Amino acid sequence: MPVPGPGYSITVRLEAPPSASAAGDLTTAVGRVGGVLTAFDVVESHADAIVVDITANVLSADHAEDITSELDSLPGVHVRKVSDRTFLMHLGGKLEVSPKVNLRNRDDLSRAYTPGVARVCQAIAANPEDARRLTIKRNTVAVVTDGSAVLGLGNIGPAAALPVMEGKAALFKKFAGVDAWPVCLDTQDTEEIIRTVRALAPVYAGINLEDIAAPRCFEIEARLREQLDIPVFHDDQHGTAIVVVAALRNALRVVRKPIENCKIVVSGVGAAGSAIIRLLLRKSPGDIVAVDIDGVVHPGREDMDDNLRWVAEHTNRDKATGTLHDALVGADVFIGVSAPNLFGAEQVATMADDAVVFALANPDPEIDPLEAQQHAAVVATGRSDYPNQINNVLAFPGVFRGLLDAHAHHIDDEMLLAAANAIADVVDDRLNASFIVPSVFDAAVAPAVAEAVRAAARREEVASTA
Ligand SMILES: NC(=O)c1ccc[n+]([C@@H]2O[C@H](COP(=O)([O-])OP(=O)(O)OC[C@H]3O[C@@H](n4cnc5c(N)ncnc54)[C@H](O)[C@@H]3O)[C@@H](O)[C@H]2O)c1
């Protein structure tokens, strides 16, 4: 039975009798229908009544309704209003622009704006690289989406995607001091997206593509990387791949298996799965077997697109065919970025001893982690309510911090691997089966990732000018 979490939290304002038992009656009523009470505040007190705000985590709109009715049915209780705390947090959006300069008088104005600003414009016109020194470009990233693959919600369009992009921008600032801004495009045409991002690129020192559906996301990223002189990073692909590679390095340390001896099954060959496979191949694994909705990916399969063909050519040493369940037999590692509830404990039992299971489909993983634990030595999910959460927040803020600091013009696999190693290293001697990645709130992570990416970018710059 799922437990209500803070993602859906309501505050019920109600009037109740001022009796000694009122608080107990109200809190018991919330618990009786499965709400998790998180706050009880008396906001008004009168001789004949008290006004109370009751805050509780709930599971759904229906559940919120049940709790409200339960409270309203108590003798002498009258519910005045119910607010959804998540919606309250979104009122007016989650970001704002704030100037870094004082504009107190005519002097300030004439330097920050005309006429003084004109000389700065001329300096940049004469030397475009100066834009990084003299404008917001230095520290600004565009979070670009077409709204076509938003969270688990699918193609909900650019306006509905905006709350997610705002949240992403807030994370960039909180964890790495990066000024990121949502750019939600009202087009899902590949050429138009490429043209538009190219046209707005002068303002930004990096492009973070977000929630753009596969396979379109592959072409958009590849073409923008060719055409722009700033790094282009699709977080759903590479952010995930970085954290998975980091987590796998530590998981294999726990079970003492070299990756070169491991058979790794990757379920899902979309945005996340393809990038994971490509980055893992750089680590020379024993073998990777990719599986998608049509079964094991092998060179004999028909109707494969370019992405699947590439995967078929570079994985599956024995050209195996069959289903996910077939692929799991004897596998050392399972990495799922596909769909919920694809297998159970009995399939994990067919894997090699000391199996590693990363079931990352959100919100419901490929296997219930409690079932996986029956036979696997290390289990990870994408969820915050289990140990070993594979969360892209561990990667993207530090990656962009490092890229911006290095004035990088591109991003490549060396930088992604450097970021993965940095995340894995932060765990250090705290490593065990329930702690293969650091917490997203570990303040050491983003600086360590930034430093690793900055060093990798500078090494390449030196190599390319030598
Ligand atoms: N950090 C994380 O935990 C994290 C990061 C990225 C993605 N994810 C999750 O991974 C999943 C995939 O994300 P994506 O962006 O790559 O999606 P996507 O749509 O690009 O790809 C989905 C892939 O899963 C495959 N698939 C679908 N149903 C399947 C089934 N029954 N059996 C085997 N394969 C199946 C599809 O064929 C496709 O290859 C989502 O649930 C997403 O939330 C988690």
UniProtKB/TrEMBL annotation:
Leader sequence segment: none
Active site: Y113 (proton donor), K168 (proton acceptor)
Binding-site residues for a divalent metal cation, renumbered to this chain: E210, D211, D236
Gene Ontology molecular function: malic enzyme activity; metal ion binding; NAD binding; oxidoreductase activity, acting on the CH-OH group of donors, NAD or NADP as acceptor
Entries under SUPFAM superfamilies matching the protein: Aminoacid dehydrogenase-like, N-terminal domain, NAD(P)-binding Rossmann-fold domains
Cofactor: Mg(2+); Mn(2+)
Cofactor binding summary note: Divalent metal cations. Prefers magnesium or manganese.
Transmembrane segments: none
Pfam families: malic, Malic_M
Keyword Metal-binding: yes
Highest taxon of source: Bacteria
Record keywords: Metal-binding, Oxidoreductase
List of residues binding (S)-malate: N362, N391
Keyword Iron applies: no
InterPro entries registered for this protein in UniProt: Aminoacid_DH-like_N_sf, Malate_Decarboxylase, Malic_N_dom, Malic_N_dom_sf, Malic_NAD-bd, Malic_NAD-bd_bact_type, Malic_OxRdtase, NAD(P)-bd_dom_sf
UniProt similarity note: Belongs to the malic enzymes family.
Designated name of the protein: Malate dehydrogenase
Source species: Prauserella muralis
